[in-house]
């Protein structure tokens, strides 16, 4: 079991906490992290790119002029892809880019991402983060005490004051532990875990 310090919102150490080695101290494989992050980004793609093909263009199907005798190129109808305003050839259609990797791989990648934050000394545990009112200024002062500029904050349950206070601050994201994912952990420099959320994370990953 690894030991980590627990801080309060003033940046003072208040206690220590034991972390499970099976979650926060596992061998890190870059290939597994890359595979899961690529999957997440692919699932976020809209896939709405679309063009009008020959059958989608409005117009008559009448042959423009006779096949022979004019000395001009052979022409079909006005919707031909060779003509201006005609249909597009081999253009994109709406599609889904999403795919899935095995659940065990996703779970292992999440453990590796958490391990990376500990190894880089970028994991910070807070005993609590309670704001009396939704005010950005108060939340900024807390970040100043913790010397944090770019961070992902993981909470156990919904905290409206915290979410409202942080939504206008760039490079700060507040997330419930149910939504914790590899991409967001690696995207932000610091990972801030509230002490109650660690038990929820361990319960999710130790099953």
Give a structural overview.
This protein starts with a strand and ends with a helix. It folds into 2 domains: 2-46 and 100-205, Ribosomal Protein L4, Chain: A; 51-91, no CATH class. It is of the alpha/beta class and 207 residues long. Helix 4 crosses helix 5 (160-166). The longest helix is centred in the middle third of the chain and has 17 residues, at 103-119. The chain is elongated, with a radius of gyration of 27 Å. Strands 2-1-3-6-4-5 form a 6-stranded mixed sheet. It has 7 helices and 6 strands, in the order E-E-H-H-H-E-H-E-H-E-H-E-H.
Oligomer: single chain
Strand arrangement, major sheet = 2-1-3-6-4-5
Low-confidence stretches: none
Run of helices and strands = EEHHHEHEHEHEH
The first-level CATH class name of the largest domain: Alpha Beta
Share of helical residues: 25-40%
- The global form is elongated
Q: What share of residues are in beta strands?
A: 15-25%
